[in-house]
Amino acid sequence: MASEPQKALLFAAAAAVRLLLFTAFPSLPSLLAGRVEVSTPVTSFKRLQEGLFLYTRNVSPYDGGVYHQAPLLLPLFSLLPNPSYSPFATNVFYTMVDLLSAYALMQIANSGQATVTRLFTSSRKELRWSSVAIAAGFLFNPFTVATCIARSTSALTNLFILTAMAKASQGATITFVLSMAMASYLAMHPVLLFPPLLILCYDVQSTKMKASPHTFRFIATHSRRLIIALGALLYLSKLLTGSWDFLGATYGVRLLLPDLTPNVGLWWYFFTEMFDSFREFFLGVFWLHVASYMPGLTIRLRKQPLFVATTLTGIFAIFTPYPSIADAALYLSLVPVFRHLFPLMRYTFLASSSILYTSFLGPAFYHLWIYAGSGNANFFYAITLVWSLGLSVIVGDSLYAALRDELDVERPELRGKEVKRI
Amino acid sequence: MVSSLVLFLLNTFIAYVAASSDYYERLLIRPLPQSSVLTSFNFRSNESADAFEHQNFRYFPRSLGQILQHAGTKELHLRFALGRWDAESWGQRPWNGAREGGTGVELWAWVEAQSEEEAFARWLTLTNALSGLFCASLNFIDATKTIRPVMTFQPEGYHANSSNLHLLHGTLPHEVVCTENLTPFLKLLPCKGKAGISSLLNGHKLFDASWQTMSIDVRPMCGPGGGDCTLEMEQTVDMVLDIDRSKRPRDNPIPRPLPIEEIECDTSKGYNGGDTCYPLDKSEEPAWNLTEIFGQPLKGACPLTEQSGEGSMTVCINTPPERILQVNTTGQYEEAKLASDTVRCYKLPTGADFDLVLPQQRMTTGLVLTGPQLFAARSINGHGQERGSVQAVIKNPSSHSVEFVYLESLPWFMKPYLHTLRARVDNSLENPVKETYYRPAVDRKRGTHLELRMIIPPASTLTLTYDFDKAILRYTEYPPDANRGFDVAPAVIRLINPGSSDNKGIYLRTTSLLLPLPTPDFSMPYNVIILTSTVMALGFGNIFNLLVRRFVGIDEVQAGGAGGLQGVLRGKIDSLKALFGRG
């Protein structure tokens, strides 16, 4: 358990760093908001401002090709003073979002669900980092800081994903369902986290109440609650904008990828170069591919649902249509919760060096393509490939470690011995 | 200010004459500074509304008339333009800019329809038919290039008889206007370029001009009270010819430096010598004649023009009275002097060539050019292919404030941020924007439409800026010359002048912009599909390999037991070893 002064010091330092960066470099937020690695068409703050501008002038922001974010963000941000003139309130808001995310991350770490679940107890459960260290890893991760300074709305999505995970690992069902609904409402793909987190919630409740709730009733109740919460959010959005047009402009854009602005993911260049007649087919295939991981992981790692959810956030950071470094930041901050798996991982050097390599070369190659004109699109594309490969190595390697950890419990005689997959 | 008075008089008297006759044509020539000459051709043909309804065409071209009837078009304006009007040295635009288009092709029309969908369907019919008629790519004016302006354009004709009129506007800034557009344009004229002033129109010279614009305007005109309606078609060609350039012979078109003996040198320069020379500005008006600058002679009068009166004076030249003019013809002609002798008009002979010869002459007086009411320039700021900003600088040199409408029609792949729109006047803190109409673009469906009503105070400069993002397109959406960039249509500015009795309005247009977009590598769709798929397969394969397989200890499986390439090879080697060992 982290001591209270330590926690306060960490939060104060993180807030100070953010507010200092905001005030000492007034042009940094707009510079970062313009970076394709940080802001995507569905999370960009500049586009949010444009949507807000149109919304406050009674023009539907969804009747245009610029604003693709959730409608409820509009009244939320219209309460804050205009960030072009008085950015302080917005800066404090984003700092608070990061601190709340870190708090949720600490709750996840403190719950101990990473090592000890109802059905599984890791043999290395003593090996763990304190929650303050994990939260510090999140708060001082350059990717998180950049996301916060760029005021990308993926910071909000990350907050709701982390809160949903924290509440599920505490067995607080109502808040879990609500934050799950918010995360799915903002970014759509987090809905895939619902089954593993529901299992987690079920396990925690069973442990707490010393008796398992009725399985089917539990699933049905919570699914119904999620659907009601999502329906309420969507209906509220409809009331707010006056029509259902926002569905096509927000989720439709994520599904069909009309905006091919470069990002760190694999989709944009693939669909730039795709032949027109195969576009729909490959859109379907890519989305099926993203969704296919959820059932496989949930079934195979039934005993470690928190690990499944974490791995899925890693999958989202690689394979969704508009990923940014914010998604990678979320995954990379969740991985240290599983400190006990680190000794079993095999390619940590390869993965971390490829992430570092792409973090530095990505912006450089983008500059060569867009500004210097001495490179072409393939330069940046190659870096996104390496970035995705690096992240998928981490995902695969941690999955190997988790399975090996399970094996050590099932067959203690194999501990430390070489194994083979058949 | 003499010349402005002259032009004003001339324009009103043209309008008066036109209403009374069925066919009318006039060429107005005005020498401009820097040895340029502005030539304005104007042709009008009228058809009574009744005859038009019954498809009884006399002067109105049947081909165009039937298209208009089929597409339910009540008023049509079509423009083909090239080059830039240099307002700094040439002054006010001909027809106050009302018969001028932006670079490329511009088309706007009032279409009668019950609903917006029907209006758009008729608009597509119209653009496709006009595309065939004028050999231009007008059929590429689709939904992404069509806007419905609300403040910029006003109907010129009389439309009390029609209801449910829809204004649609489309531009093709990339279109290269050339001779294939001139030929159908001349075919619409009753004399078809065989006689009359239209016989001067030659594609080689017209499209070599520093600035040229061709226009077709069809509008219904009615007498007071709405009776006695006619359909008027006006065609104009305005061009600014560079005299030196136009005089170059066709068989030797490349300009070569003159021998040094023929250049007038500035002998006051220190380096002046036998082989170095600083050429003196020619203070004399150059010598030219019509046949030389148009490359072909004026073949006498079109017989359909009036035989007497103002309407018969079809060639006019606007010069100071002291400028010597010689007429070179074998037929009968008449000369009339107007507006204190600054305009000289000629009635052309029938069936005989006519030429105006202006010798080289040192002038002591000149015409004062009227300055334009506004100057406008627009450019793209910023570097890189990711984003930029547009800056429009509008200058009001006059001593009274000017109200105007500014219209932008942007392609969908240029995404402006309206919240970054700033309009500043250099000597006032007041926001000059009074009214905004904005319709944002939708990807691949429609373009941006922005109209601003602004007031610019006297003797001040207004700067309008906004940021935009450049979209990256699918590789099939780029034209073959993708790295050249995309053209952005000129901004249209209409001056709101409550005192004007003329319903044509005062317009000016900026130049078009060249917008470079980021380009993918066009040569590697297969490579990209293969490489991306490889990375996805690696991720998928790695994860599902772990998920579906079971771990066992390495010593629990026999080496090479359960098949596999390694096992097969080891088995073969073992059997070979056994074979040789025995042998």
TrEMBL record, chain A:
One GO location term (cellular component): GPI-anchor transamidase complex
Its membrane topology: Multi-pass membrane protein
GO BP field: attachment of GPI anchor to protein; GPI anchor biosynthetic process
Domain of life per record: Eukaryota
Regions that span the bilayer: 85-106, 127-152, 172-205, 226-247, 267-294, 306-324, 344-366, 378-403
Family, as annotated: Belongs to the PIGU family.
Protein name: PIG-U-domain-containing protein
Classification via InterPro entries: PIG-U (IPR009600)
Record bears the keyword Endoplasmic reticulum: yes
Swiss-Prot/TrEMBL keywords: Endoplasmic reticulum, GPI-anchor biosynthesis, Membrane, Transmembrane, Transmembrane helix
Keyword Zinc-finger: no
Known pathway: Glycolipid biosynthesis; glycosylphosphatidylinositol-anchor biosynthesis
Location of this chain's protein in the cell: Endoplasmic reticulum membrane
Pfam families reported in the protein's UniProt record: PIG-U (PF06728)
Automatic annotation (TrEMBL), chain B:
Keywords: Membrane, Signal, Transmembrane, Transmembrane helix
Pfam families: Gpi16
GO terms for cellular component: GPI-anchor transamidase complex
TM helices/strands, residue ranges: 526-548
InterPro entries the UniProt entry points to: PIG-T (IPR007245)
Record carries keyword Kinase: no
Residues spanning the signal sequence: 1-19
Example GO BP: attachment of GPI anchor to protein
UniProt name for this protein: GPI transamidase component GPI16
Organism from which the protein derives: Pleomassaria siparia CBS 279.74
